[in-house]
Amino acid sequence: MVYVALQVLLCLAICIATQSKNVNFLGIDIEPIISKLDFFALHDKIYTYQELKIIKNSGIDYLLAATCIFSAKETIFKAFFYYLQNKIDFNNFKLYKAYTRGNTIIMKFRLEKEYSTFRREVLVKAKIYKKHVITCLIN
pTM for the full model? Predict the structure, then answer.
């Protein structure tokens, strides 16, 4: 069983701790909720309309949804960078399911192409803290 602790301080520093010695991948990210201008600049480069729709169906507004997807993909990037180096493309991480559990947004991504040799899908959890999204992946 993996125990995850997100420690959020006034300076927005974060940390993850686990009691498990069987962690293969670890990624964490924090992003400010994006502006409308950034939303249009990032659309189709980082996330698709279909991905936004999946999270918006959970009752989350589009700016928060876009930030969650962006931060989740950054988290996946950080978790797998050591193994893939510069062969990472955000368009190869496809959000296919999202739901909320309490104050946590849970997102499931399918990994395509060369990533599927070691992992086909991952689960990223997000929490909102003030005007920021904090995401983590532990596997």
Answer: 0.83
Fill in the DSSP letter of residue 34: P
DSSP alpha helix (H) spans, 31-103: 36-42, 49-56, 62-84
Helix (H) / strand (E) containing 86:
none
| CB proximity list for 8: less than 8 A, separation 6 or greater | 14, 129, 134
Helix (H, G, I), strand (E, B) or coil at 24: coil
Spell out the domain ranges in the chain: 26-138
The pLDDT of residue 116: 55
> What pLDDT digit, counting tens, does each position of 69-94 carry?
999 999 998 888 877 776 677 878 89
Instruction: Please state, in angstroms and rounded to a whole number, the distance separating the CA atoms of residues 138 and 51.
Output: 22
- How many whole angstroms separate alpha carbon 78 and alpha carbon 76? 5
Q: Which residues contact 112 (CB under 8 A, 6 or more apart)?
A: 92, 93, 94
Fold category of 26-138 in CATH: Ribosomal Protein L22; Chain A (3.90.470)
